[in-house]
Design goal:
Chain A is mostly helical and 170 residues long. Chain A is built from seven helices and no strands. Chain A has two domains: 123 residues, no CATH class; 41 residues. The mean pLDDT of chain A is 87. With 149 residues, chain B is mostly helical. Chain B has one domain. In chain B, helix 1 packs antiparallel against helix 4, helix 4 crosses helix 6 and helix 5 packs antiparallel against helix 6. The chains are: A mainly alpha (170), B mainly alpha (149). The interface between A and B is large, with 39 and 34 residues.
Amino acid sequence: MKKYLSSFVCGFGAGVLQIVPVAKSFSCCLIIPAAAYLALILDRKALGETGIIKMSKGLKIGVITGLYAALFGSGFEILITFITKNSDIIVAYPELQKMLTSFPLAESLIEQTQDLLASVVNDIRTTGFSFLYTFAVISNNLFVDVIFGLIGGLVGVQIINSRTTKSISK
Amino acid sequence: MTLGYRILLIIIILLWILGDFSFLLASLSEYFLVTGLYLNKTYSLICHQNPDKLICIDNNCTLLCTRCTGIYIGSLFTSIVTVLVDKTSTPNIGYMVAASSLILADVVLYNSGIYNYNKIISFSTGLFFGSVGFLYIRSGLEKLIDELK
């Protein structure tokens, strides 16, 4: 745990930012890669390292930061949905319904999809919890955050190493 | 990086872009509609999905905004262009700074009312950022593969 404290701190920060609507819309896909980059810098400072970082370390820190961000992000979103009995799917529901009817597809399929959406929305409105919605939140967060954490780790290492090389050559 | 890995990268990016276009392709197959509904949540994690900034054809829109779509198409473009290149060198960090600055400048300029939001500018800045950004990711992956050997 102590070994990945920087990932934990940055993952927590990213997890919180992921559910804050204004921050989310400003930083978009940069939250997780930036968190991975910051975790790399924090880790270097904590260990007092000044040399070149290995790619495998960047990958590890990036993926673990993404994992923490996914865990915290999902946890907060599920908790907030449970407390407020509201979520982004409820906000988007009328628009989704309208959109569904516009597709030139079999009516039975559209009806089935609408029923599925309605049951999710109904579960959230009445109990604050929907198994399907929770599954979607956790699986999406895990998938996206780990991938973007990995990207942040790989790009972050190159940025740090490029600066280190420059300062060594000076 | 072997040719197999390079082709795998292209396939991954292509699938990601296909996901972005799910609703635009929904009239072709119901699979796109079902996956689109699920992927809408996936892409919401990495994009604001502002309805005014999506690419729409006949009321069916992409799941990502114009700029994000540009970023991934740019990545796909570079991945295809460099598929025959065995090893890429890490590009100068200045290119990344320039690409990010263009996006930042566009966001600041239209938010301050100097000009209105323009999808072509948005797409172009994203395209440039994605094209450059992919080179860093690929170079990182190449170094990682070398380390693991």
